[in-house]
Amino acid sequence: MRIRAELINTRDASMLWSQHYDRPYKDLFALQDDITKAVAGALKAKLLEGTNSTAVVQSDRPPSGNLAAYDAFELGQFYFQRGSEEDFRHAIEQFAQAARLDPNYAAAYAAAAETWVDLAGGYLGDADMSFAYAQAGIASNTAMRLNPNLAAAHLANSSVLVNADGDWNGWQAEAQRALELAPRSAQAYFQLSTAEAGLGHVKSAVELVRRALALNPLNGYWQSWLATYLTSLGHFDEAEAVAHKAVELSPDGALIYEELSAIEILRGNAVASLTAARRAPVGLNQDYATAQALQIGPDRAAADAALKDLIAKHGDDSAYAYFIADLYALRRDPKNMFKWLDRAWVNHRGVDIQDLLYDPFILRYQHDPRFAAFCKKVGLPTTTDAQAMP
Q1: Containing domain of residue 157, as a range?
Q2: Which of 18, 37, 58, 300 places its Cα 20 to 30 Å from the Cα of 48?
């Protein structure tokens, strides 16, 4: 096998260094290691893990060296980064296949856990969500048992703790532990960014997710979250540009169209908000984004009907209670907003409540005594550097 490595100056496309390596093809992983060491030596590079006493060398390879298992794992990662409901389900199938081929494949179990969590939080209702979180917990625990020094296992555990249990401290601590174990992990930076935002440190979250994207710039899902954080800080133009980048990378991702719609709501542009909302994939995400947009529009009958329809379809499902609370916040009805926030917390899940401290709609009532009381009940601080909607 012949491999050519090049170092390019991205400013002017000039070649800084190049080398080719000829190696006999026997074992793919051994070949990877051989080439990596040769390139690192040629560039006089040092692995970051060697400068951090808490770091542990990480690997996403199957312990058995089974190439079919590794192929399945990589395909799962491809689907996971696309971010749609269908893609998440394909990713879970591939991670399960990887684990069947190598039952000791901790990275595959950790990836499956993360995917179950994101599927539940982004697309499922109460009954299906409970099943998804149970599966996530099983996969996360398996990953931690197989390899307690695997950063991805701690990241999976972090996701399960916050989304399934509303454990804010465990959320942050496990993400921080993952970053200590793997200081070059893009996923660890992203996970810690979500914890920082959820605890009201949105400026810190922006810096962390930027570091994640510096390591993995083609992740549309992370781009969408950066847009969300920038929106909550009032940087609407930058947020919109990032959101459009997310659309380019993951055109089927439902959450980004909601964010584009939310940006226009905060700008006070009802028509543009409704246009963005209707670009979301057909289903709950489009229904919710459309209902949001209608609340600031001139057609009060349509706004009332959209709210009534959402309550009729999903009012008995606590997984959607936070969405309804948001609508009441837009309608300047804090009494019903707090009532639906209480419903959202009925199962003590953090999946939606974690947005509380960077949600511009809800934060318009952050100085209401009921807001402080609710934060105390769910275990969150009352302070945030996010901006409230006027």
Answers
A1: 65-182
A2: 18
Q: Find, among 320, 78, 112, 110, the residue nearest to 221 by Cα.
A: 78
Whole-angstrom Cα distance, residue 152 to residue 189? 12
3 state SS of 21: strand
Question: Minimal CA–CA distance to 350: which of 376, 319, 374?
Answer: 319
pLDDT tens-digit series, residues 56-88: 888 899 999 899 999 999 999 999 988 888 999
| Residue pointed to by tokens 């006999």 | 24
Strand partners, 19: 5
Distance CA 257, CA 302 (A): 20
- From the CB of residue 336, how many other CB atoms can be counted at a distance below 10 Å? 15
d(CA 291, CA 294): 5
Verify that 339 and 368 share a domain, yes or no: yes
In a domain, 129, yes or no: yes
Smallest CA-to-CA distance from 186 within 81, 76, 71, 112 is with 81
**pTM of the model as a whole:** 0.82
